[in-house]
Structures are given as C-alpha cells and as structure tokens.
Amino acid sequence: MKTKTKRNQRRFAISMMAALISSTMVCSLSGLHTADAASVMKYKVTAQPFDIEGKESSIGTINKDGLTYIELRNLNTALSLNTSFDKASQIVKVSGNGRLLYINLTNNAITLNGQPVYGPQVILQNNTTYLPLRFLLERMGYVVSYQNNTKQVGIQKIKENDLQIDAKEIGADGDGKSLLVYYPAVKGFANADVQHKINALLKQDTDKTIAEASKEMDKIVKENNQTLANNPKAEVRPPSFESRFTVTYNESGKLSLYVDYNLYLGGAHGNTTRVPYTFDLSTGDLISLKDAAGNANYVNIINSQIQKQLKQRELYVNVPFNSIEPDREYFLSHTGIVIYFKENEYTSFADGMPEFVIPFTVFK
User: Fold this and answer.
1) 8 A C-beta contact, residue 249 and residue 256
2) How much is the pTM?
C-alpha cells in the first residue's frame, strides 16, 4: 500500500467505469416487466449445462453476442438466494449471504447494501426481465466459471469471512457544488477491536479525501461565481465529488476492497483515482504487496505476468511498461493479486484502468 504521503499526491476524478457493466452472463426473473427496459428481438432458448454447488443440471438459456442469459428462478433454491418482486414499485429484491440487492426496473437503478452500483440495461423477452448473472452472483458472494471443454457453467459459493460490509453515506448539495460519497464500514466481526481499527482508518481516509476535494471544488465555485457576476446568463457547470467502493475479496482472514473517488472540476470529463485496501483481519493492519505475494521475487513475477497479458490482450500502451514499484497499489480477487494501471498512466483515457490478475499460484 502507498504511504500517507503518496495518498496525498493522488489526483481525484469522475469516471465510473463501464467495466462493471461488462458482465458475461445474465439471469432473468419471470413475470417482471417495465416500459423502460431495453427492447430486444426474439432469441432462441437452448439448453445450457450447469454445475451449481456440485449439482449438475440443464437450464434453458439465451445466447446474445457470446453472452449467456438465464432465468434466476431456476437458481434460487440451489444458491440460497431469496428473490421477490413488488409490482407497484417495479423493484426486484435479492437477498442472501449478508447482502441485499435492489433493482429498480423503471430506471435500472441498482443498490447493494445501500450503495448505488452500476449495472447493465434491463432486457425483456416474453414479459421476462433479464439481468446479469455474473454481475449479480459475484456481488452476492459466488464465483462463476466456464469450462470450454464441457461448455459447462459452474457456480460456487465462496467461503467468506464472517463479517458484513455496509455502505455509509456522506452527501451535501448547495453553494455551487455537490457531494455524494459512499464509503465502506465493517460490521458483525467477532474481533471488535480489529473492526474498530479498520473502520477508523476507512473513515479517517474518507474525511481527509473529502476535505481535499472540497478545497479543489471551492476554487471552481469561486470562478463560476465570478463568471456569473460578469454575465448572469452564462452557463456554468458546478463541480461535484462522488465515490463508490467495491469489495473484491473477503476470504482466508483477509479483506480487500477499493474506493473509486470521482472529482469533476469542469471540461469534458475528469480523471479518476482508486484507493485500494487489503487488511489482515487478525490485526486490522494493511498488508503490503510483498506480504500478499509471499515471494521475494514478486516484482519480477508480476512484471512478467503483466507483459504476458498485455501481449495476449493486444492492449496498446502509450509508454513502454517496464516494471511496477515494489509498493505498487493492488487489491485481491478470488483468484489472485490484481495490479491496475491508473488513468492515462500507460494507456489512453478511454481504456479506463486496465486490471491484471496475477494468479496466486504463480507466487508459489
């Protein structure tokens, strides 16, 4: 993890990536419909083999542009998820594994444990609403896989640490600027001291980041006010500051997540900054990249993997990638250590923040 000094040097931004929307599988809840949902042509329903928690089955699916769509009602019992639909409000509710997901079909708004998250457009066919399976399940504590040789989709529940992550909100509008920040808070963890230590750090970092962003916004507010004083009919765009967080790993005594901070100060767009955290749940301390890798040669191993993936993905870089820093920011996923490029660091703004999953196995 970066030091506090390095954290203070980060640039803020606004740009919530469409990467969260690029789900590879979609599920449906029959009987749901909304006029605002995306209209689609009729697709052929075919049998798709599944392995759900070790139980094999075949479920009718729709394939569109290489993506798989499936009815959620066929998965509820096996996955221990509960779903309901309120026709009056057009809201789908999915609960289980310490999570509560709401999907508003009238405007495609999605919230997870109280925090808005970005998701794909709702799709309708024969009065059935289709939603993303991978997007949904990975946020509900499952891992989704696909076997090329058998063409089988695997769904497995992740064995998580016994704790929950809630979203805390700080919001304010007025004085020519807006603020809407969501930050994570651990609850229900057996070790109250560790829980308090983690939450104190997360809140402290959030407050400090808000204070720094507010100073930047105040400069723009002053400029906007001057512009309006000179020309009351002038069009000005107020600055805004937002954040969302994503929990990426909650296993084996570790908790990993990141917060995306988004500061808009004018122009066509802003930039983005990501602040990751990986905690040791036995102490509440942050885990360094070196300790997470557990291999003295971790820098070379990671460099090799990134070079390999750059080639495989044919990802264009503006400047050559040579090496990560020994204390490079990272977060954990179910399968490995994730290194990411910051906006405009090696790739174009349009590429967002490319992520490189370095499998845990390569460090052994």
Assistant:
1) yes
2) 0.84
